[in-house]
Model the fold of this input.
Amino acid sequence: MTISELEQQLASMGLKLYTGDEHYYYVDDSKYHRYAYVSKTCMFAVDTDTDWFKTLQTKKRKRLFNMLMEFAATPLDKRQSTKCQV
Done:
């Protein structure tokens, strides 16, 4: 899963991906409540041990967890979207 694909899926849940940090991608909402972290330097490294993640309804929590796992399983060099220009 690419960053742009993850951003689209998160947007459908009212969440945003912040990419400005050197080591982590952060999943926040519009009020800057942090839901999860995904490592930029290590595959399969996700942290959802946040109070905001725990307050999500079970269905939403499962959906977010699954999309983060798919993204974290993507090789680091495949997370960026590649655009071809003609």
Remarks:
- The chain has one domain: 3-75.
- The radius of gyration is 13 Å.
- Residues 3-75 form one domain.
- The first strand starts at residue 15 and ends at 18.
